Amino acid sequence: MSSRARRGSTSEPSRSYQTRDAHKQASSKPQKRSAWPTFLGVGFLAFLVIAAFLAFFHGQSASPEVKPAVGYTAPDFTLTGLDGQSYSLSKQKGHGVFLFIWDSTCPACKGEFPQVQQQFEKLGQKIDFWAVDLTFSESSVDDVRKYLSSAGITMPVLLDSQAQVAQAYNIQYTPTMFYIDSKGIIRAVDIGEIAPDVLVSHLNLIAGGQ
Questions:
Q1: Whose C-alpha in 48, 136, 140, 202 is 20 to 30 A from the C-alpha of 34?
Q2: How many domains does the chain have?
């Protein structure tokens, strides 16, 4: 009995040592690190790069805000001319547009119109010259026709009978001139009578000149 108990007692430490040895061997083996953290880090970095690229591309391709000021997209409009034709600014993309906003009761407009007509005859193939008459403020369209005929004005005249352009372009004084490039961006604005060289210089901005 005693020898069996002794043998039984000596067999327990053996099992205990084997357990500790197995634990020691298991703990001594190098643990494999998960690839998920690295994968997620690379993926997040790629996401940031793509997001930055898209934000930059959107900023480069987006059109400037619509506003009647230099550097902004010119407000669109559609008016009927004295010739009965329809004129839409949005349809003129690819071509510079010069807006001469006036009315027949304005002395400064009449003083400026001759040199504008002169430039129309020189640059009319490169730039669309539009004289926008503030018709809502006129006594009659006949008065406009009479003035144009007497002054020898042949450039297209558009009738702003509902103050569409006057409001969209915030017109406070006449004449007011907007120089719009082929992309629809306002490159310069003049108010009142200006020197001939200033007119030519600003027209060159939208005609491709320097």
A1: 48
A2: 2
